[in-house]
């Protein structure tokens, strides 16, 4: 109290000194035209605003020279605390002790008065509000520099990515040229093999035709001889004398030609069938060899080429979170992207809540990122590097929430456009048979009967996506591990009417 009295006496002397030295003010001439926005006005002037001379922390009002006189001349106001004019004077005074907030508690991060410092914040490290501001501004400046450096690094990284994209495009074009050359070479080899088989078959044809021609010439000659024999036999039958007939027959028989029936068949079908079998079997073996060789080797190259290399930061050395408070440290505040929302989904609550309003659709403008078949929406911001935690409230059979790559198909009707049907999405949802986790069109039944709030935890560095029942104590429902190659986006799929998915913004 003694300290306060001394401070007030000093303020009274200072104020009186200022009044004596200052030129008298004419309130009539001090109108709003001469006041500046930063000036503090007298709270007691009703007709025309006048600039305040002092603020009273006890009264929590500001006074001009005329209305300040009672505080300077009346002993009843001697305990009032007068300071230079203050804007928002209520914010400068402790609500509990009615004293000025002159210090800052570094432990609790709040402004305190002298009584607060000696009572509730006793033993805490404090500093004057000026010193605290200087210290915090220094910290903010350092943080701003760090953020600026990070922004510059991000800009450089974006430039590198764009350059890398150009390099990838040009490299792929070069490789495509080589691939086309090699496949042209393969086609040339196949054409040579085809020509060789055709030439062999044409050779077989020429051989068979020559053989047939030779046999035909022989048969024609044989036919001529047989016709002569028939003529001789007809001549014998015309002999009138039995003795002549028998003698001529004996002579004819000595030189009679063989009358066995010639066979005109030249059967080469078995030989030609062997060609068909050889060509068919060899073609099948080569096709299988080519496809298996290309597929296996290309698959190995793709796996080694797309393996994600984590940039810059390393995995967190901290243990995995266990309690809900631990998880909330990694909370991300996300909203759904209106440009991706299906026509049957309604966005509310600052784009945090999705509701399936089928069959009522909303007149969203056409957009290349909008889902056209699957009733889904993804968030505007991604989950990339580090740890991330999101909570979502689900309502109804058919409500699903998970994460997916931005490259998910937005227009097609295939299952790959759904977060439950491809190998770059991971989700949890409910249907008529219960709660399931889905990945790559494979479902896993979850050991839970009722789930209203789902916890989604992503550790990007360790390549894990975990789902938790956040309705009560944290309980892990399922966990997936993968080598992430792209940033992840929280995605909601509402397959039935009145399904709801809400992103919870809670620290």
TrEMBL record:
SMART domains: BBOX, PRY, SPRY. One of its GO terms (cellular component) is cytoplasm. It holds the Pfam family SPRY. One of its GO terms (molecular function) is zinc ion binding. Keywords: Metal-binding, Zinc, Zinc-finger. It comes from the Eukaryota. Residues 7-28 have a biased composition (Basic and acidic residues). Residues 314-507 form the B30.2/SPRY domain. Residues 1-32 are annotated as: Disordered. This is B30.2/SPRY domain-containing protein. It comes from Zoarces viviparus.
